[in-house]
Amino acid sequence: MMINVILAIYYTVMVMIITSIGLFIKDRLVRGVGLLLMIPMLFNLFRILAGIPDSMLRVLVFITVGLLLTGMSFLYQKISRQLSKS
After folding, report:
1. Res. 1: pLDDT tops 70
2. Is the model's pTM score more than 0.70?
3. Under 8 Å between Cβ of 49 and 65
4. Lesser CB count within 10 Å: N end or C end of the chain?
5. What does the H/E/C string look like for the chain?
6. Distance (Å, rounded) from C-alpha 35 to C-alpha 17?
């Protein structure tokens, strides 16, 4: 169980890095691939997190993942607007 959690977090972080690289090098294809790869990684992460038996820990983890996704969405929108202006 623990190795699945570590791998899911690792792959999710790698996909976030790929998306960030696509944003900073202003390559739409890399950015799109990163976002498309993020979908199955997040489903996998949520599937694993839903199996956590302690409900309080599960709630805290879901809140943390939600805040991280909200923060990433905010940064993506901010950087995307700057890229469209230039």
Report:
1. no
2. no
3. yes
4. C
5. CHHHHHHHHHHHHHHHHHHHHHHHCCCHHHHHHHHHHHHHHHHHHHHHHHCCCCHHHHHHHHHHHHHHHHHHHHHHHHHHHHHHHC
6. 11
CA dist., res. 40 & res. 8, Å (int): 10
- Structure confidence at residue 86 (pLDDT): 65
The closest of 50, 48, 68, 71 to 59, measured between CA atoms, is: 50
Task: Show the tokens assigned to 29.
Answer: 């294809």
Summarize pLDDT for 29-68 with one digit per residue, the tens: 888 888 888 888 878 877 877 777 777 777 877 787 788 7
